[in-house]
């Protein structure tokens, strides 16, 4: 009996108390701010709300944000996978330093990142002057926005894929090689199915972060209406004009888009896990 009681004893408080704390924190930190968006948006009638969020300039800002965030997430998925692979599978001088630098975009203020990237990519900057010789402007274009989003999004992919790669036994690759698989078959049929859920998670997190990014983008974008103006900047513009209802309406659309992206991420990961379990 004493052993059974010892097994039932938990370090964390009981289910009721833990659930109460969790729900309280979730409500105060997450749900309450989101409810405020709905309340402010409710000041507009359905027709006014639809008119606000479908203005040509607002639609253009949505398009710029989605295009650049999606392109940046694709690049992050490829480059993040390569970086994670190098950090897990190879030993080289400075590996720990590189591993720490990956998280720099998390710690660096986004405004600092935006200013630094802008100076690098203008026609007088180190990177911008090189591409200017070929007639390719970077700063104050959608390319520049994409570069900034790649910078702030790549840690999500690396940190999502890296732990999964560390758990994959290299003997799987050796077994595939013994069975006659070439490198491409080993990558696509042995390694990729294992890391696919993590890669999808990193991609969607990078995509969602890019949609809402403001600080690192506002400097490099140039903020030209119908060209390089992003949705978060439209929200800030409405706030500066004290039009809180319009600002929260645009923000509500972006919130719905982010929620949809994360929902699709959860569905894809669930299906990928079931497929992998079926294969195993």
Structure description:
The protein has 280 residues and is mainly α. Helix content is 80%, strand content 0%. It is globular and about 65 Å long. The model has no long low-confidence stretch (mean pLDDT 83).
Index terms:
280 residues, single chain, mainly alpha
- Can you tell me the overall shape? globular
Taking pLDDT < 50 over at least 5 consecutive residues as the criterion, the unreliable ranges are none
- How many helices in DSSP terms? 14
Helicity level = over 70%
* DSSP E strands, number: 0
N- to C-terminal distance: 40 Å
Estimated radius of gyration:
23 Å
SSE string, helices as H and strands as E: HHHHHHHHHHHHHH
Q: What summary fits the major beta sheet?
A: none
- The fraction of residues assigned to DSSP E strands is under 5%
Content-based structural category:
mainly alpha
Q: Roughly what is the average pLDDT, rounded to an integer?
A: 83
Quick summary:
By secondary structure, the chain is an all-alpha fold. The protein contains 14 helices and no strands.
């Amino acid at each position: 009996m004493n052993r059974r009681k010892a097994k039932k004893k938990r370090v964390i408080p009981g289910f009721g108390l833990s659930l109460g704390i969790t729900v309280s924190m979730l409500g105060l930190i997450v749900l309450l701010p989101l409810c405020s968006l709905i309340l402010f948006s409710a000041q507009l009638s359905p027709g006014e709300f639809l008119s606000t969020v479908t203005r040509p300039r607002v639609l253009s800002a949505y398009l710029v944000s989605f295009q650049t965030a999606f392109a940046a997430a694709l690049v992050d998925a490829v480059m993040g996978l390569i970086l994670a692979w190098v950090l897990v599978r190879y030993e080289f001088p400075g590996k720990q330093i590189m591993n720490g630098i990956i998280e720099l975009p998390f710690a660096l203020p986004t405004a600092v990142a935006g200013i630094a990237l802008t100076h690098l990519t203008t026609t007088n900057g180190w990177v911008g002057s090189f591409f200017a010789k070929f007639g390719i402007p970077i700063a104050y274009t959608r390319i520049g926005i994409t570069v900034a989003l790649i910078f702030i999004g790549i840690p999500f992919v690396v940190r999502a894929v890296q732990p999964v790669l560390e758990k994959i036994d290299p003997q799987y690759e050796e077994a595939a090689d013994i069975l006659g698989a070439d490198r491409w078959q080993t990558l696509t049929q042995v390694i990729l199915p294992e890391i696919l859920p993590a890669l999808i998670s990193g991609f969607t997190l990078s995509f969602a972060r890019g949609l809402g990014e403001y600080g690192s983008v506002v400097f490099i974008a140039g903020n030209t209406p119908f060209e390089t103006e992003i949705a978060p900047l439209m929200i800030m513009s409405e706030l500066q004009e004290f039009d809180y209802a319009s600002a929260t309406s645009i923000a509500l659309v972006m919130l719905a888009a982010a929620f949809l992206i994360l929902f699709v991420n959860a569905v894809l990961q669930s299906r990928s896990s079931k497929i992998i379990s079926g294969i195993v």
